[in-house]
Structures are given as C-alpha cells and as structure tokens.
Specification:
The complex is a heterodimer of chains A (108) and B (227).
Chain A lengths: L2 E3 L2 E4 L3 H10 L3 E3 L3 E3 L3 H15 L27 H25 L2
Antiparallel strand pairs in A: 1-2
Helix pairs in contact in A: 1-2
Chain B lengths: L2 E10 L9 E5 L2 E9 L16 H17 L4 E3 L4 E3 L2 H10 L1 H11 L2 E9 L13 H31 L3 E4 L6 E10 L3 H15 L3 E7 L8 E3 L2
Antiparallel strand pairs in B: 1-3, 1-4, 1-5, 2-3, 6-8, 6-9, 7-8
Helix pairs in contact in B: 4-5
Classes of the chains: A alpha+beta (108), B alpha+beta (227).
C-alpha cells in the first residue's frame, strides 16, 4: 500500500511519526513498580521540538511571505531580483550624479 | 552492564500467539517484556535524532516488538522507556489494573490506527508587475477566502472520516497543515475508509498523506497507577 493514489500519498512510517507515537503516546505506568530509565518528560519535549524542526519551515508556515509579492517582489519572477536591483541602483546613481552636476553648474 | 525488565505491551494471555516472546501472564493478561541492558538507554542524544542515532534505533526496536505482537493479538502499547522493577512488579501491575486493561483491549480489538495529514494546496504565484493596488487587494482577499474554504473543507474531511472510524483524535497543527488526525478503524471497514479519503480529498482538491497501519498508539494514551 505505498505510492501515490490519486492525490493521496501513502507513505511508510517516517522517523518523526514513529517517534511521536512511541514517545508521546501509549500507556504510562506510574507508581513504584516502574522505573523509567529515560527522563521521558525531557525526551518528549525534545522530540516535539525535533518533530517541529523536521517538518520544513514551509510546512510550519514560517515563510508565508516568500510567495507573497507584497513582501517579496523578487518572488514574482525568479529571473528578476538581485540583478535587476543592481541595474536599477546603477541607473539611479547615474541620474543622481547628473542632477548633482546640473546643480553645481547652475550655481552662480 | 545493568539489566532491567523492559515492558513493551499489555495483551491477552494467548500462549500460542506469544510463543516467540517473553511474557509474564496473570489472570488472562500478559505483559510482553525483555531483559535489556539499561546502559543503552542512558545518555541518549536527543537533539536531532537521525535514522542511525541510538534513540532512533531504540525507538524502531520498540515499535518493531509492539507491531510483532500486534500482528497476533490486540495490544496496549506502553510508552517508550518503561522498565519494571522485576517480574513481581509485572504481576502486581496486571492484577491492579486487570479490569481496566481488559476493557481497553476489547476497545482496540480488531482495529488499526491510521494517520491522516491534509495540507493546503500551494497558492498560485501572483504577477504584480501590471497589477493595480485595488486588483492586488482583491487578489489577496480571494486568497484569504480560498484558505478559509480549505480549512472548512479539511474539517469536513475530519467529520466524514470520524464517521467511518470507531474513534478519532485530532492533533494541533500549524502552517499549511490543515488537519493532523488519527483514526482507529475496524479492519473490516478499512477499504471503505480509504475509498472515502480518496473520494473526499480528490473532490475537494486537497493533498493528503496517509500513514499506517499503526498499532493503536494514539488511542491508548492512559495512565495505569500501581494501586
């Protein structure tokens, strides 16, 4: 039962899924009869952090702005961006320089 | 090397099924155990468990034993790292929580757990070069409405799947994850359950991931105290 079935992706149990179930679920025995060898509270906490970081930032919605052109104009088109900005910058420098020349020359 | 009695699952005492395991039986219940070297469990590096880390190996081992018993009998998996204070303690535990454990075993009998994750479809990229402010805001509103629709659709999927399952549970989720749920499904109803997931997510255009079958890890989250 693996592979893509239409839109549904059936995957083998990942480490993160297994850790989450084995460490965070199941019967907990409290009292004198059980000695937990590992500090399970600490383990669970760390594993939750791991699962959170194992999912990519995109899955966590941490980079919602990267697809939003309002915040990331370069995302509109992958070929624009730094190169265009540099060109635009150079053009503006030229225009400022020529305006400064005009001002200096125009002075009495 | 210090040895300890590591406990994996509570199950019914069926000597034929449990022939390949070490188990401690008491009044119709059995605890599947193994003598382990406790040093293996100390100083685990928890920060970023990779597939070959000690923690991952131990967790996979635990899962493998739970699954092996689960192939044969209903199980109540114990949480990772449970070590008992000897065989007498195991008998005391099974005696003290006898009725409760039997009731839980009946509850999970003939059922398997399936995980379901539904994500939001990736939004279409927007070309802003020739878009006016008004058009941008209209576009942004359409996207927000679409996100709200997707969340509602994911809730509808969960309601529908819950009706195909014996039990269900929903976890916290964030970001583009719209649903993170687990279902306990009668083995006889699994075909319907899966057909329904395919039909619904296809109809709603939501990408979905199924994991499983799992032993009923998410449905035995309980505490047994030593009475």
């Amino acid at each position: 039962m693996t592979g893509r079935l239409g839109q549904v992706d059936h995957r083998p149990s990942s480490l993160a899924d297994t850790l989450e179930r084995v460490l965070d679920k199941g019967v907990v025995i409290v009292g004198d009869i059980a000695v937990c060898v590992v500090d399970i509270e600490l383990l669970t906490l760390r594993v939750r952090l791991f699962i959170a970081s194992a999912q990519t930032a995109r899955e966590m919605g941490m980079d919602w702005w990267t697809n939003d052109p309002f915040f990331t104009p370069g995302a509109v088109d992958g070929t624009t961006g730094m190169k265009e900005l540099a060109e635009q910058n150079a053009e503006l420098r030229d225009r400022v320089a020529s305006l400064e020349r005009v001002l200096t020359e125009g002075r009495p | 090397m210090s040895l300890g009695l590591y406990a994996y699952v509570i199950t019914r005492d069926r000597p034929d099924s449990l022939a390949g395991f070490r188990s401690i039986a008491h009044r119709g219940l059995a605890l599947v155990v193994a003598e382990v070297d406790l040093d293996r469990f100390t100083g685990l590096d928890l920060d970023e468990p990779t597939e070959d880390s000690r923690l991952a190996v131990l967790v996979r081992e635990h899962d493998a034993v739970v699954r092996a018993v689960f192939q044969l009998e209903p199980v109540l998996p114990l949480r990772f790292g449970t070590v008992l204070d000897g065989a007498d303690a195991a008998v005391r535990l099974l005696g003290a929580r006898h009725e409760e454990a039997l009731a839980w075993l009946d509850r999970v009998d003939g059922r398997r757990e399936w995980g379901l994750r539904v994500r939001a479809a990736a939004p279409e990229p927007v070309d802003l070069r020739d878009v006016s402010g008004t058009a941008y805001l209209a576009q942004r509103r359409r996207r927000l409405t679409a996100a709200e629709d997707a969340r509602r659709a994911a809730s509808a999927v969960h309601r529908a799947m819950t009706s195909h399952a014996a039990e269900s549970t929903c976890r916290d989720h964030a970001g583009d994850l719209l649903l993170e749920a687990a279902y306990l499904v009668d083995t006889g109803r699994e075909a319907d359950f899966h057909a329904e997931i395919h039909r619904l997510t296809g109809e709603l255009g939501l990408p979905a991931e199924i994991t499983g079958p799992w032993p009923p890890y998410s449905f035995t989250k309980l505490e047994f105290a030593d009475a």
